[in-house]
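[job 0412] stage=fold_complex status=start
inputs:
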Amino acid sequence: MSHGGNDAASTPRRLVELRGVRAGYDGIEVLHGVDLTVCAGEVVAILGPNGAGKSTTLKVLAGLHPASAGDVVIAGRRVNGATADALARRGLCLIPEGRGIFPNLTVRENLWMMTHAGVERPQVLERSLHCFPQLSDLLDRTSGTLSGGQQQMLAMARGLATDPALLVLDELSMGLAPLVVDSLYETVRQVADGGTSVLLVEQFARIVMDVADSAVLMVQGHVVDSGHPREIEGKLTQAYLGGQENP
Amino acid sequence: MEKFLIFTVVGLTLSATYAVIASGLVLTYATTGIFNFSQGAIGMVAAFAYWQLRFDWGWPTPIALVVSLGLLAPAIGLAIDRGIMRGLRGTSEATRLVVSISLMVALIALANLVWEPGRSRPMSTFFEGSRVDLGITTITYHQAITIVVAVLIAAGLRFLLHNTRIGVSMRANVDDDALVLLNGAQPKRIAGISWAVGGFLAGVGGILIAPTLSLEAGSLSLLIINAYAAAIFGRLRSLPLTFVGAIVIGLTEGYLAGYLPGDNQYFAAFRPAATVVILFVALLLVPNPRLRSRAHLREYFPPPSRSGMVMLAVVVVVAGVVLATTLDTVSLITYGPVFSLGIVALSLVPLVGFAGQISLAQLSFAGIGALAVAHHGHDGSPLGLVLAVVLAAAVGTVVALPVMRLTGIYLALATAAFAVALDRWLFNLPDFSVGPVHVRLFGLGSVSVDPLRILGHEFDSPAALLMLSAVVFAAVSLLVAALRWSRFGRQLVAMRDSEAACATFGLNLMWPRVGVFALSAGIAGLGGALYAMQLGSVAPARFDLLNGLPIFILVVVGGAGLVGSALFAGGILYGVLPLTATLGPVIAKINSLFPGFTGVGLGRNPSGAVPVFSAAAGPLRNDPVVLASMGVAMAVCYVLRLAEVFGNWAFVVLLGVALVAAMVVARRRSSSGAQGPGQGAGAGPDPEDLEWVGVTEPFTPAHLARMEQVLDLQSVDLEGAELDPVGGRDA
Ligand SMILES: Nc1ncnc2c1ncn2[C@@H]1O[C@H](COP(=O)(O)OP(=O)(O)OP(=O)(O)O)[C@@H](O)[C@H]1O
Ligand SMILES: [Mg+2]
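[job 0412] stage=fold_complex status=done
writing structure:
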């Protein structure tokens, strides 16, 4: 699945580079030197078993969790130590694991929160409802009462409405019906075709086969392999069955 | 009709004030998740500041208002956020509550320090003397202003929270502050604004209500109980319902003031307690809260070790003997409560520490114990002590039954309401009968208490009573430790950790809670009875809510799950603080700030202070040689003291030197011999202890079986599902 948009002749610009990133919780290291590159316009998937450190990698990238060593480079600038809100206002949009919404706010108020990233309120509303027309009937519902799929759409709306340079998605598929997942990833594909780079995390390669340009395999805090999602899929099965011997 | 209208206006004015204060409370709770017990105390400080500027220094009203309301009150709110609340992320609700209760105690102490209590500080109302004629009745300018301000604030808050982005962000913040960051907003700034607005609202309430009451730090801060009642109507979330609650409460108070016959003692005493009763009822109507499944918390309390408990009991008894033989009568009375009120502190360990429940009413249960021993312990009959435990436990059960489904803030408020109801109402009633039951109280003053007499021996001197309390303290400590080791204790801890998980295991959540509440009330009653014997004659003021809060705070500061924390609380409050206070009035003043400020510091180390001390003393505990030498040295000092070679101060200093020297030597020895075998053998966890399984030894199906038995799970039948969690693969 080749993806047009950027000129193959010019060297692809590296939008995100993680170099030897280490991080941990309460003194226990869970990332042992992660290297990862996302080029402009590219869709990269991080695959790996539970507890591999995928979410932690994303948190470090988004400024939610400190890296204890290594470099986090975005658009050529080392951003270790930058706060999550500053990165968000500069075009990094992380939709976290679970439901990235405020359950006690209405849908409309959730959309309003997105304007902190710097996009005006009417635009946010227009873009979100354009992509997810289902939400327009739900604007004044308390978002915690929406179905899982509706909640994930609302969460995803931030990725569309704020027009980020880099969209980072953590297990979009979690707990959703396959059809809903397909339609959400179709939206991701559209966003990517619009020029946004995407870094996404999933447990299973199959889900992202049609979306991702490339994939990396993460096991026990290391990136152990990279390539086309199809190549990674086979190795992923191995990682699940006997990840221990690998790193 | 005229009278009715007048008291309607009086009631509505009160409503307006309560509404303003309660809305500040709801604002900070809804936007930061912290229930600010000190909301009233902030208002109190603002009112004092306003009095200082406007009436004492004679500044013009607008300037005084701008400084006290526009600057000081929001600044206090901001300072609380910056200095205290930010450190509380990831702590339990109980810890947060203790911090805000401590803050209230600290602000009261601070205000009493700056504005010496007992002086009259007259404040006039706004536009005193001018009235507005409404046709049917006239109201004062102050009343009109109060009501208008409340309405404006209601409208303003509603607009802020729903129609401005900052307001929406405030509400978002309490849901998920990481997500707020991901949206590009700044949670810290947002929380700061919430606290500043909350402080401002507290200030408005305080300044509006202070002129109609007297400017007294404690009662102004507690007046807020009325505002809490209003906030409970709104379930701490809904502003409109909070305003409804405020109107109900204000009008009730207004009409009671107008129509309750003032010549009947029973009714007259009821008036100040009416709101508390409303609060209590409102709490009962709170819908069942969801079961908590606890998130990652920073507190952790290991179960007591057998050797540690024996050591604690021995130290307590020896300390009792030493104190009883070295102190003069006056000092014995001063330091007497170390152990008796220490037992009240001990009553909090199973409740707060093990079960994670909160009670602010332990000293009230102690008061019930005191009453029991006063009325049934004539001539030292031991029946008095027995009844003290039984009656306090019985009242504890009666209180517990309706409120036990409440947790956290609601439970804290319900017990505070109970304590205040006793302080303001029941304890001040003359004796009465309900059917065949004759209830004897403090007889509108104080009651005398006879010292205990067992087998002809009468504990009639302060020294004998001190020793008695020390022995009882040691015994109750062992009892509490045994409780922690028992199946019941494990159930309590399991519930504290996750109610939801316990419910899915099929545990009944109700009876352990009621049981531990009753038990802890009984222990408090015992402590109260001993305390009453030491005093010889007791009045209800000894047992009021504000006197009980420092005990609660220090137990939590010590580390509520640890038996040693009760000794810590008793020792500091009734030993160290009075002792250092004799050094001079300045230190006495600083001491008055101590409980509040240490409680506020809890956010830094939620597991408490006792683990810090016991870690420091760790090498000493494991070094029998140094320990024995220290014991001998102290014993020698004691003998020399008894021989009047030196006085008490030298004795205290020598004991301190011996202890510090022993700790230093033990540390040296342990670090030099760290590689040696057998080191720290005594410090390891009890291998029998199930809670260490998986850490100290591998987990086996036998452990599973025992765990099921310990947690009372035999009845759960999973129909032969594959339950072999480990090892099954290898088999
Ligand atoms: N808040 C935390 N505190 C302590 N340890 C954590 C925390 N969050 C994650 N960990 C640990 O870090 C490791 C990596 O976790 P992470 O959430 O990054 O994994 P993941 O690859 O996203 O897994 P999953 O597919 O299950 O989401 C795990 O071992 C986990 O236990
Ligand atoms: Mg994850």
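[job 0412] summary: Confidence is low (pLDDT under 50) at residues 1-9, 243-247 of chain A.
[job 0412] exit 0
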